[in-house]
Amino acid sequence: MGDPREPPEGTPDGAGNDDEYAAVVFDESFVRAARIQELSARERLGGQYPRAVRPRIFLGPLGSLPRQAVALLLLIAMAFAAAVYFGVSAPPRLGAQPSGNQLTVSLVALTPSSPVTAVTDPKNPFAAVPGGYADGVAGLAVPASSATAHFTRTEVAKALDTAQQFLVASSLTPAELVQGETGGVRTLITPGEQAQYDQSINEPRDDQHHAATGWLVRFDPGQVALAAGGVKVTGSMQVAEADSGTLEVTTDHTFVYALRPAGTDDSAPVTLFSVRRELRFEFDRTDIAAGRLRLVDSVEQAGPTACGSRQADHLEPALAALGGPPAAPAPPAVNPGDHSHPAWQLCGVLAPITG
Asked: What domain of life is recorded for the organism (predicted)?
């Protein structure tokens, strides 16, 4: 049997095996031997055999473009969509201007109307404090929890408990008051505010948003020491709904601290220093479940302190001097045309503590 790759009547003359075109040159006998099938008209119209031309997918104006051009256009469209998505969903930069969801702080210095005097009995520094004040946590007066329109009694109770923990950590704990600790307060703040909190602690400034003393009461440990372990407190807490998904807790308390100059012993004069803090917290259901809060507003009055003192980093009490009470500084006149100081810097005159 002959080689099937050869024509039926042998290799034609002049076409040797060395001819590079031998595989594609067909003689007349090869063509006659080939089967040729021509479809009838009925077969062509019946659609039983595949069409020789590929159907074109309708793409409108894009249908006439080369395949590479269509792919390039799709790639550009996908890149544009990704840029829009990441531009909208990207978190704000740390250096962005303050927005409505950041803590707003107002600090008011209360200057004494007369020379600062020490307490009569350093061993019982709170003897002159009115009877409406209680010791520490007892003075916070946490109300009984009850359900609101959109929050259960349990959710309200957890929010009040978190707010109480924040007040204890930021206003009553010696580690935060005079030892420079800040971690206890940070653990209670929602993650969305922790960057602002860190900026306030590391680079405090009186710009209504980054004062460390807006978050917590603290004194410079190199200047001030606690003369008594306790703190006298009076005030109240209220619960409301900011909207159907946000619970709001407002607190308004006055804290009285017994202070003496740092590095002195128990014989040093003791000064009573008052701080009123009005705070507004917000909780969504995720915050309540996690035991965290968002501090929205912080208004603070503190005295006795000198008007114009820098209170963004630490509160600066005017303490009774070791050699006798100094003269009380008069509140300075305010020039509304002087733009060298922020307009929100306030100063008042300290009145005697009452209930």
From this structure: Bacteria
In DSSP notation, 151-217 reads: S-HHHHHHHHHHHHHHHIIIII-HHHHHS---HHHHTTB-HHHHHHHHHHHHS-BTTTTB-HHHH--
Q: What distance in Å separates the CA atoms of residue 150 and residue 259, rounded to the nearest whole number?
A: 44
| Total domains in the fold of the chain | 1
**What is the span of the domain harbouring residue 306?**
104-350
Which residues in the chain come in under a pLDDT of 70?
A: 1-67, 70, 83-101, 322-332, 341-342, 344-345, 355
- Pairwise CA distance, residues 34 & 14, whole Å: 22
* pLDDT value of residue 308: 81
Does 218 map to a domain? yes
How many residues in total does the chain contain? Answer: 355
Question: Environment class of residue 123 by beta-carbon count within 10 Å: exposed (0-12), middle (13-18) or buried (19+)?
Answer: exposed
Q: Give the residue among 163, 148, 355 at the shortest CA–CA distance from 250.
A: 163
Whether residue 14 is contained in a domain is answered as no
Burial state string for 212-242 with b = 16 or more CB within 10 A and e = fewer than 16: bbbbbbbbeeeebbbbbeebbbbbebebeee
Task: Please give the angle made by the CA atoms of 15, 17 and 18, to the nearest 5 degrees.
Answer: 95
Question: Nearest CA to 282 among 330, 249, 239, 254?
Answer: 249
The helix (H) or strand (E) run that includes residue 256 is: strand 246-261
Structure tokens at 314: 């630490």
> Is 39 contained in some domain?
no
Model-level pTM? 0.70
pLDDT tens per residue, range 208-235: 999 999 999 999 999 999 998 899 999 9
